[in-house]
Specification:
Length: 450
Amino acid sequence: MKTLKLLFAVLPVLLAGSPAGAAGPDWHKYEIQSVSLLRDYLRIDNTNPPGNEAKAADFLVGVLKDAGIPSSRFEFAPGRSIVYARLKGTGEKRPLLLTHHMDTVPADSGAWTVPPFSGELKDGEIWGLGAIDMKTTGILHLMMLKMASESGKPLARDLIFLAVGDEEEDSAGMRWFLKNKSELIADAEFALNEGGTIKVEKGHPDVYQVSTVEKAPLWLELTAEGAASHASEPASDPAVDRLLRALDKITRFPRPVKVIPSVELYFAQLGHPDIKKELLDPAAAAAILGVPYNKAILTNTISITQLKASDKINTHPNRAQAWLDCRLLPGEAPEDLLAGMKKAVSDEKVTFRTVLSESSKESSPDSALFRAIRKVAAEGDPGAIVMPMVLTSSTDSHYLRDLGIAVYGFEPYRLAEGEERSHANDERISAANVNFGLRFLFSVIQEAGK
């Protein structure tokens, strides 16, 4: 496994002759600033609920103002903010949007080694809730505008900074912004958001995972009706039994394999040059689909996650319910899946209600931005594999894809097994990763402007 020190030595070579000027950036200065700003950002409690993104917005707007970069601020709910800024380029190419969310999931402070909002620098690592998900990325995005502004030479693309709230709960911030202010980013060609990172494993090539699509969530509520009675005798029409029969049919509901372009390229880079042909062989297909992630990116998935029936152990309820988390591949119509499940269940006393239904679009794994990531990785990390990946969960990216922006989920952090601590106790990131991410992202932005 290559060291970050070696990569730091290689990446500055990529910047020679770049729009940032012959001398190149003052890396020492910007690395110190990045770590310092991150520690300050992590000290702000944006636990969601309630979010309190206004506190983070105060901080980000202040940093942008100090850098001489105008910004706008919008409130999508009391105490909840969005920050927008645009650094003008030459206009030769369409803008690049850099977006992140300010809120974090809750933390059990008693399970942390240090206070979760300490921003402590300890043993070369910066500790705090949001260090991985995703305040470090927000600081790197901000630094891109600051560094480009201070270079004195405009980039070919405008750089747009967008910090939103509520991604960890309901994406209310991004949904509000696109409903009310979408014209501010509608001209963007590309966007970078959260998603993949760099997977490092001793003895193996580094794998740069760039998410190009995420599956569309379809959340369903099933309700089975029956006759209430005392549980000391068999029920004449038990709602629970009816629900269990319906769920059994749903678990056996056929979900055909579908290979989308990003998944085809993903498997090709893992040594499966013709995954479609392999999947025609029953034995090979069973082995491939036996891996949970593989099955998730090749089929629509249906997960039974919640059950509810009687409040008392000695009562047959007149109603039993279940909730399903379904995830659909791009191009799959939720109404078709729902109609198929209803037909399979075929019980007029079992009803379906859609709780959530969202879209899924795929960004091309062959675009100027994706190629820029691939080139910078190859020149700084020979032998590395850069591959598209499918996120089986959801982020704000799909809302931006609906706007026609090609969105890529990539955060340039080199993480070994156990170091991806999103939503975990003792979340932290190494200062070396912050510095590497700063250099890598700056190189990508330069390359994407050529």
